[in-house]
Amino acid sequence: MPTGQIRKALSGFYYVYDQGTVIQTRARGVFRKRGQSPLVGDMVTYTVEGENDGVVTEIEERKNELVRPPISNVDQALLVFSAIEPDFNEHLLDRFLTVIEGYGIEPVVIVTKMDLLSDEQRLKVEHQASYYEQIGYPLIYTYKGDPLLAESIAKLLPNRLSVLAGQSGVGKSTLLNTLLPELKLKTGEISMALGRGKHTTRHVELIEVAGGLLADTPGFSNFELDHLEKEELGECFPEMRKLTCKFRGCLHLKEPGCAVKDAVDVGEIAEHRYDNYLQFLHEIMDRKPRY
Description:
Helices cover about 25% and strands about 25% of the residues. The protein is of the alpha/beta class and about 290 residues long.
Protein backbone atom coordinates (compact mmCIF):
# COMPACT_ATOMS: atom_id res chain seq x y z
CA MET A 1 0.00 0.00 0.00
CA PRO A 2 1.23 3.53 -0.72
CA THR A 3 2.63 5.75 2.05
CA GLY A 4 2.80 9.51 2.37
CA GLN A 5 2.71 12.44 4.77
CA ILE A 6 -0.35 14.36 5.94
CA ARG A 7 0.32 17.97 4.92
CA LYS A 8 -3.10 19.45 5.76
CA ALA A 9 -6.16 18.51 7.85
CA LEU A 10 -9.49 20.27 7.29
CA SER A 11 -13.11 19.38 8.09
CA GLY A 12 -12.44 15.66 8.55
CA PHE A 13 -10.30 15.34 5.42
CA TYR A 14 -6.56 14.59 5.49
CA TYR A 15 -4.48 15.68 2.51
CA VAL A 16 -1.67 13.16 2.01
CA TYR A 17 1.41 14.16 0.03
CA ASP A 18 3.00 11.27 -1.84
CA GLN A 19 5.81 11.93 -4.33
CA GLY A 20 4.43 15.17 -5.71
CA THR A 21 0.75 14.15 -5.63
CA VAL A 22 -1.79 15.16 -3.00
CA ILE A 23 -4.52 12.64 -2.17
CA GLN A 24 -7.64 13.70 -0.26
CA THR A 25 -8.33 11.02 2.34
CA ARG A 26 -10.56 10.22 5.29
CA ALA A 27 -9.49 8.19 8.32
CA ARG A 28 -10.69 4.67 9.05
CA GLY A 29 -13.28 4.39 11.81
CA VAL A 30 -10.93 2.11 13.75
CA PHE A 31 -8.82 5.14 14.75
CA ARG A 32 -11.80 6.61 16.64
CA LYS A 33 -12.26 3.35 18.52
CA ARG A 34 -8.59 3.45 19.50
CA GLY A 35 -8.95 7.10 20.59
CA GLN A 36 -6.45 7.99 17.88
CA SER A 37 -6.63 10.77 15.33
CA PRO A 38 -4.36 11.41 12.36
CA LEU A 39 -2.32 14.62 12.63
CA VAL A 40 -0.62 16.92 10.16
CA GLY A 41 2.98 15.70 10.01
CA ASP A 42 2.03 12.02 10.32
CA MET A 43 3.56 9.49 7.97
CA VAL A 44 0.67 7.23 6.97
CA THR A 45 -0.30 4.25 4.87
CA TYR A 46 -3.41 4.79 2.75
CA THR A 47 -5.55 3.08 0.13
CA VAL A 48 -6.71 4.83 -3.03
CA GLU A 49 -10.43 4.94 -3.80
CA GLY A 50 -11.25 6.73 -7.01
CA GLU A 51 -8.90 9.06 -8.84
CA ASN A 52 -7.83 11.37 -6.01
CA ASP A 53 -9.54 10.01 -2.91
CA GLY A 54 -8.38 7.53 -0.35
CA VAL A 55 -8.54 6.20 3.20
CA VAL A 56 -5.79 6.44 5.83
CA THR A 57 -5.30 2.90 7.14
CA GLU A 58 -2.22 3.12 9.37
CA ILE A 59 -0.30 5.86 11.18
CA GLU A 60 3.44 5.31 11.59
CA GLU A 61 4.97 5.79 15.04
CA ARG A 62 5.41 9.47 15.87
CA LYS A 63 8.61 11.15 17.00
CA ASN A 64 6.51 13.65 18.97
CA GLU A 65 2.99 15.02 19.08
CA LEU A 66 1.81 18.55 19.91
CA VAL A 67 -1.67 19.59 20.98
CA ARG A 68 -1.69 23.26 19.96
CA PRO A 69 -1.20 23.27 17.05
CA PRO A 70 -2.22 19.63 16.42
CA ILE A 71 0.89 18.45 14.59
CA SER A 72 3.39 15.59 14.83
CA ASN A 73 6.99 14.73 13.97
CA VAL A 74 8.28 18.29 14.49
CA ASP A 75 12.05 18.66 14.16
CA GLN A 76 12.57 22.31 14.99
CA ALA A 77 10.86 25.26 16.71
CA LEU A 78 11.71 28.84 15.78
CA LEU A 79 11.18 30.67 19.09
CA VAL A 80 10.43 34.30 18.30
CA PHE A 81 11.08 36.82 21.07
CA SER A 82 11.12 40.58 20.69
CA ALA A 83 13.90 42.74 22.12
CA ILE A 84 11.31 45.39 23.06
CA GLU A 85 7.51 45.92 22.87
CA PRO A 86 7.18 43.44 24.60
CA ASP A 87 10.58 43.40 26.34
CA PHE A 88 12.92 40.41 26.03
CA ASN A 89 11.64 37.93 28.59
CA GLU A 90 14.15 35.37 29.88
CA HIS A 91 11.64 33.61 32.13
CA LEU A 92 9.22 33.01 29.26
CA LEU A 93 12.06 31.95 26.96
CA ASP A 94 13.24 29.42 29.57
CA ARG A 95 9.70 28.01 29.74
CA PHE A 96 9.44 27.77 25.94
CA LEU A 97 12.86 26.10 25.72
CA THR A 98 11.99 23.59 28.47
CA VAL A 99 8.69 22.61 26.84
CA ILE A 100 10.30 22.30 23.39
CA GLU A 101 13.24 20.24 24.72
CA GLY A 102 10.73 17.98 26.50
CA TYR A 103 9.21 17.10 23.12
CA GLY A 104 12.63 16.33 21.62
CA ILE A 105 12.39 19.34 19.30
CA GLU A 106 15.45 21.47 18.52
CA PRO A 107 14.93 25.16 19.35
CA VAL A 108 16.27 28.20 17.49
CA VAL A 109 16.06 31.57 19.30
CA ILE A 110 15.10 34.53 17.10
CA VAL A 111 15.20 38.02 18.67
CA THR A 112 13.18 40.58 16.70
CA LYS A 113 12.88 44.41 16.71
CA MET A 114 16.58 45.00 17.42
CA ASP A 115 16.36 48.18 15.32
CA LEU A 116 14.04 49.77 17.93
CA LEU A 117 16.66 49.70 20.70
CA SER A 118 19.01 52.41 21.93
CA ASP A 119 22.69 51.41 22.09
CA GLU A 120 22.40 50.81 25.83
CA GLN A 121 19.29 48.66 25.44
CA ARG A 122 20.90 46.71 22.60
CA LEU A 123 23.96 45.85 24.71
CA LYS A 124 21.69 44.64 27.52
CA VAL A 125 19.59 42.40 25.23
CA GLU A 126 22.70 41.03 23.49
CA HIS A 127 24.19 40.22 26.90
CA GLN A 128 20.99 38.40 27.98
CA ALA A 129 20.57 36.53 24.70
CA SER A 130 24.24 35.56 24.31
CA TYR A 131 23.95 33.15 27.26
CA TYR A 132 21.59 30.99 25.20
CA GLU A 133 24.09 30.90 22.36
CA GLN A 134 26.83 29.88 24.83
CA ILE A 135 24.81 26.86 25.98
CA GLY A 136 24.32 25.72 22.40
CA TYR A 137 21.19 27.27 20.93
CA PRO A 138 21.32 28.89 17.47
CA LEU A 139 20.58 32.63 17.88
CA ILE A 140 19.43 35.11 15.22
CA TYR A 141 18.84 38.86 15.69
CA THR A 142 16.46 40.55 13.26
CA TYR A 143 16.36 44.17 12.11
CA LYS A 144 13.59 45.77 10.06
CA GLY A 145 14.45 45.87 6.38
CA ASP A 146 17.38 43.45 6.71
CA PRO A 147 17.80 42.09 3.15
CA LEU A 148 19.56 38.96 4.44
CA LEU A 149 16.91 37.97 7.00
CA ALA A 150 14.97 35.54 4.81
CA GLU A 151 18.24 33.93 3.70
CA SER A 152 19.58 33.47 7.25
CA ILE A 153 16.36 31.80 8.42
CA ALA A 154 15.96 29.79 5.20
CA LYS A 155 19.33 28.15 5.96
CA LEU A 156 17.76 26.54 9.05
CA LEU A 157 14.85 24.93 7.22
CA PRO A 158 16.11 22.29 4.73
CA ASN A 159 14.95 18.71 5.43
CA ARG A 160 13.14 19.72 8.65
CA LEU A 161 9.59 20.20 9.81
CA SER A 162 9.55 23.53 11.66
CA VAL A 163 6.99 25.42 13.73
CA LEU A 164 6.98 29.02 14.95
CA ALA A 165 6.34 29.92 18.58
CA GLY A 166 6.22 33.14 20.51
CA GLN A 167 3.92 35.40 22.47
CA SER A 168 1.62 37.87 20.78
CA GLY A 169 3.17 41.01 19.28
CA VAL A 170 6.75 39.75 18.89
CA GLY A 171 6.70 39.76 15.08
CA LYS A 172 5.77 36.19 14.12
CA SER A 173 3.51 37.32 11.29
CA THR A 174 6.23 39.66 9.94
CA LEU A 175 8.68 36.75 10.02
CA LEU A 176 6.24 34.43 8.26
CA ASN A 177 5.62 37.06 5.59
CA THR A 178 9.37 37.39 5.05
CA LEU A 179 9.64 33.65 4.44
CA LEU A 180 6.28 33.18 2.70
CA PRO A 181 5.24 36.47 1.06
CA GLU A 182 2.23 34.73 -0.52
CA LEU A 183 0.64 34.42 2.96
CA LYS A 184 0.25 38.21 3.31
CA LEU A 185 -0.65 37.97 7.00
CA LYS A 186 -1.43 41.42 8.31
CA THR A 187 -0.03 42.30 11.70
CA GLY A 188 -3.00 42.13 14.03
CA GLU A 189 -4.62 39.32 12.06
CA ILE A 190 -2.44 36.89 13.93
CA SER A 191 -5.20 35.70 16.26
CA MET A 192 -7.26 34.78 13.21
CA ALA A 193 -4.31 32.89 11.77
CA LEU A 194 -4.07 31.04 15.05
CA GLY A 195 -7.69 30.03 14.73
CA ARG A 196 -8.76 32.06 17.74
CA GLY A 197 -11.36 34.08 15.85
CA LYS A 198 -14.82 32.92 16.86
CA HIS A 199 -15.90 31.62 13.47
CA THR A 200 -12.65 30.56 11.82
CA THR A 201 -12.00 26.99 10.78
CA ARG A 202 -8.85 26.03 12.54
CA HIS A 203 -6.40 24.04 10.50
CA VAL A 204 -2.71 23.47 10.22
CA GLU A 205 -0.98 23.20 6.88
CA LEU A 206 2.61 22.40 6.04
CA ILE A 207 4.12 24.62 3.36
CA GLU A 208 7.26 23.74 1.43
CA VAL A 209 9.83 26.48 1.95
CA ALA A 210 13.62 26.46 1.45
CA GLY A 211 13.78 22.68 1.12
CA GLY A 212 11.85 22.06 4.34
CA LEU A 213 8.34 22.20 5.73
CA LEU A 214 6.96 25.05 7.81
CA ALA A 215 3.63 25.09 9.60
CA ASP A 216 1.90 28.17 8.17
CA THR A 217 0.17 29.11 11.43
CA PRO A 218 2.44 30.62 14.10
CA GLY A 219 0.41 28.69 16.59
CA PHE A 220 2.46 26.81 19.15
CA SER A 221 0.50 28.00 22.16
CA ASN A 222 0.56 25.26 24.80
CA PHE A 223 3.38 25.95 27.22
CA GLU A 224 2.35 23.74 30.10
CA LEU A 225 4.85 21.23 31.46
CA ASP A 226 2.29 18.39 31.54
CA HIS A 227 4.42 16.10 29.38
CA LEU A 228 7.40 16.21 31.78
CA GLU A 229 8.11 14.31 35.00
CA LYS A 230 10.37 15.83 37.67
CA GLU A 231 13.20 13.39 36.88
CA GLU A 232 13.20 14.53 33.22
CA LEU A 233 13.32 18.28 33.82
CA GLY A 234 17.12 18.61 34.19
CA GLU A 235 17.56 16.92 30.79
CA CYS A 236 15.74 19.88 29.21
CA PHE A 237 18.50 22.27 30.33
CA PRO A 238 21.58 21.63 28.15
CA GLU A 239 24.01 23.20 30.63
CA MET A 240 22.69 20.85 33.35
CA ARG A 241 22.45 17.62 31.40
CA LYS A 242 26.18 17.62 30.62
CA LEU A 243 27.06 17.57 34.35
CA THR A 244 27.26 14.45 36.53
CA CYS A 245 25.99 14.67 40.11
CA LYS A 246 27.05 12.37 42.94
CA PHE A 247 23.66 10.66 43.14
CA ARG A 248 21.67 9.29 40.23
CA GLY A 249 18.29 10.95 39.91
CA CYS A 250 19.54 14.15 41.58
CA LEU A 251 16.86 16.84 41.36
CA HIS A 252 19.42 19.61 42.06
CA LEU A 253 17.58 20.77 45.17
CA LYS A 254 19.44 20.03 48.41
CA GLU A 255 21.21 16.79 47.54
CA PRO A 256 24.91 16.51 48.52
CA GLY A 257 27.46 16.42 45.71
CA CYS A 258 25.16 18.22 43.26
CA ALA A 259 27.26 19.36 40.29
CA VAL A 260 24.50 21.71 39.11
CA LYS A 261 24.37 23.67 42.38
CA ASP A 262 28.18 23.88 42.33
CA ALA A 263 28.06 25.22 38.74
CA VAL A 264 25.49 27.87 39.79
CA ASP A 265 27.71 28.90 42.75
CA VAL A 266 30.72 29.54 40.48
CA GLY A 267 28.67 31.27 37.76
CA GLU A 268 28.89 28.52 35.11
CA ILE A 269 25.10 28.25 35.10
CA ALA A 270 23.14 31.51 35.10
CA GLU A 271 21.25 32.11 38.32
CA HIS A 272 18.01 32.98 36.49
CA ARG A 273 18.15 29.64 34.69
CA TYR A 274 18.50 27.74 37.97
CA ASP A 275 15.73 29.82 39.59
CA ASN A 276 13.43 29.05 36.67
CA TYR A 277 14.41 25.37 36.83
CA LEU A 278 13.33 25.34 40.51
CA GLN A 279 10.05 27.06 39.69
CA PHE A 280 9.28 24.55 36.92
CA LEU A 281 10.28 21.66 39.20
CA HIS A 282 7.85 22.78 41.93
CA GLU A 283 5.16 23.25 39.29
CA ILE A 284 5.61 19.63 38.17
CA MET A 285 5.77 18.33 41.76
CA ASP A 286 2.59 20.24 42.73
CA ARG A 287 0.69 18.85 39.75
CA LYS A 288 -2.27 16.66 40.59
CA PRO A 289 -1.53 12.96 39.95
CA ARG A 290 -2.68 11.63 36.57
CA TYR A 291 -4.46 8.28 36.41
